Amino acid sequence: MTSFLHGFILAFGLILPLGVQNVFVFNQGATHKKFTRALPAVLTAGICDTILIFLAVAGVSIVIFRFEWLKTMIFLVGFLFLAYMGWLMCKDTPEVKKDQESNPFSAKRQILFAASVSLLNPHAILDTIGVIGTNSLAYSGFERWLFTLACIIVSWIWFFALAICGKKIGQISSNEKLLKQINQVSALIIWGMAVYMGCQLL
Fold this sequence. Notes:
Layout: H1 2-15, H2 20-31, H3 39-58, H4 60-64, H5 68-91, H6 107-119, H7 122-136, H8 141-170, H9 177-201
């Protein structure tokens, strides 16, 4: 069980920082009155992380970053998308009415955005490849699968916890102010990541 504990602690340390993916899942929990309405974002984020972890452990995704032009393209697409996503979140003004949703993302929009911030985020990919992929090399066979499983379990638990936490915080205020502030903070964090990616391109 050493490999499982190793994977659990490592994945938790990687996923804990407040990144774009975390902010988006939290935001969806906060802007939906029913937790089930935020599930598309949670499930998509979990599935995307599962795919990235499998690719990292298999060593497939390491090949991608051997091509400098492909790495540059991924950073460019990530920069443009995050800038656009930050703008959307910033301009959205929650309208909280009795027994109604607070101007939420549709299920289709949640899936699109969650997949994009997961798969078009170069730093998340690099962390997965560089850290989880590298650490998995210490194990083989069944132990390696335990390590991989632990990393995946942490991702799923974390995304569900984020959405639930967002929902609870969203219930604190009965007016638009708190939800609007959550959107604005989310936009600032996302724009910050976009600027950082832009600097990497330069």
